[in-house]
Structures are given as C-alpha cells and as structure tokens.
Amino acid sequence: MERVGVIGLGVMGGPMAANLVRAGFEVTGFNRSPAAVDRLVAAGGRAGASVAEVVERSTVVLTVLPDSPDVERVVLGEDGVLAHAAEGLLLVDCSTVRPGTSTTVAAAARDRGVRTLDAPVSGGETGAVNATLSIMVGGEAEDVTRARPVLQALGTTVVHVGGHGAGQTVKAANQLLVGGISGLLSEAIVLIERSGIAPAPALSVLAGGLAGNRFLDLKSEGMLRRDFAPGFRSELHLKDLGIALAAAREAGVALPMTGLVAQLFAALVAQGRGGQDHSAMLALVEGLSGGPTGAERGRRETTAQ
C-alpha cells in the first residue's frame, strides 16, 4: 500500500488526511500551523517536521494549498518537494491553481523522474469531512490508475478529464458555476423575502424542481439564518474566478456572466467579508436592494437586546 504524505492540513487538507488514515494508509502530514498537525496525529497519522520529511517518508504526496504561488514555493522551491523527491514519487496537487501552474510543475517534475497529477476537489469542507468530494484529475492515465485508491478514499466521484492542467480547467468551470449559483440563489432569497413570502417552504419547492442544485441543498438553511461561517471563503472563490477568467483569455472565449460574478465577489471581499462563506453573497445582494431584509433586521435587533 502507498505511503501518503499530505502537505497543507487546513479546512480541506486536514479532513482529507484523516480520511486517508481511516482508509488504512500510513499518512504523514505537514502544516505551518502545529495545531493542524496535532489533529492529524490524534486521528492516527504521523507528524512531519518539514516538507522534506514528508517527502522522504512517502511514495505519494498530496499538496492541498491555497493558491498558485504556494504550490510553486512548496513544490519548486529550493527546499521544496522536488528538491527531496526520489525517482518514482507521485505528486498529486489537490489545490485549486492556474492550469499553467500544473503544466509547469509537471515539466519540472518530469526532469527529476517524478510523476504528477493535478487533482483539484469540489465539495467544500462537508465533502472533505465526509469523503464525498468530486475530484477532477489531469495527467497521464497510468498515474491516475496508481492514484485512484488514494483518491477514492477522499471522494465518491473521481474522473480523469485529460492531460496535465485539464483538472484545473474543469475546476475553474466548476467554480464559475458555483459562483453564479451563489449569486442567483441570493437574488431568489431577497425576492422571496421582500415579497412577504416565507422563504423556507419556497426554497423547498424550488429544490424539488429544475432549479434544484447542491448549493441550494447545502447552503440555503445557513443563508436564511444569515450564518456565513466559512465552509469555503469568499476571498478564495474570488481567486478561483480569476483563474477561470485567465483560462478563458488563453482559450479565446468570452465568459461575460463569470466576469460579472467576479466583480460581485470582489465587492464582497472589499466590504470585509472575504473570510466569510461564499454564500455571504446574500449580504451583498440585499445591500444592493436597500439594506437587510426583515429577517436580518430582526436577528440584529434580537442580538442587540
């Protein structure tokens, strides 16, 4: 069985590493925050003191990092993954980054005899905790076959979508869809509430028809409570939309709706809500409609008493 290293034990990487332990893999994790490593050890994993130690103990290394510069630093840096990797190591990047970052990493790794896959994930913190992620994989078929037992411990949908960088392009498409749905669901809630209609039953019937979707299923209850505790931060979604727009420029295609959604997320982040869940788009939409709804005002008044 593969020995798996996980670099990046945050909101997504932490539960993913714990699920690999539960699946029977020997797992070594590294994170800049010691508390995250302690949680993995409590779940049965091993602590890595550095990137080098994780790489040296592992046959497969997963990186779960916030952005392209982080992946480039951790993988390509002078004390990074490739600097310590033995020939035959399989590097699986589960971060959401630019497709060009994945192809750059693949080329650099090939020169050192290291195999790579880009395997970004979708499903948020809930999917990471429950091992129900959707994983879109770019790279060579033989490497996908090798990685599949590891990835199947993390998600229920694992699909090889193409060559290096293809996983990241499909993830960009995923994120533009999710961002658009977040905005439209926010508009639907504001319309329903401002029309004097009870939102819970209204959303229930919407969920049962063609408008039904996973975002509505997972996020609407919290949105009605105005609970925007992060499952996936708005500032990260803004970053992902930037990746989608850059990919569109490279492909020579127009994404006008994605451009608008990106502007809305930029406004949300500018209002200081970047650390809140991407469902906080509701706060922006209701602000554009003249302020908080009656439900939000009531919640604020109750809190103030």
Question: What does it look like?
Answer:
The chain contains 15 helices and 9 strands. With 305 residues, the protein is α/β, with parallel strands linked by helices. The strands form 2 sheets. The chain has a 6-stranded parallel beta sheet, sandwiched between helices. Strand 5 (90-93), helix 6 (99-110) and strand 6 (115-118) form a beta-alpha-beta unit. The protein is globular, with a radius of gyration of 20 Å. Residues 300-305 have low confidence and may be disordered.
Low-confidence stretches: 300-305
Largest β sheet strand count, sense and barrel closure: 6 strands, parallel
What is the mean predicted local confidence, pLDDT?
94
List the strand order in the largest sheet: 3-2-1-4-5-6
Measured on Cα atoms, how large is the radius of gyration? 20 Å
Helix-strand makeup class:
alpha/beta
Shape: globular
Helix fraction bin:
55-70%
Secondary structure tally, helices:
15
N-to-C SSE string, H for helix and E for strand: EHEHEHEHHEHEEHEHEHHHHHHH
As a percent range, the share of strand residues is 5-15%
Total number of β-strand segments?
9
Distance between the termini: 58 Å
Subunit organisation of the chains: single chain
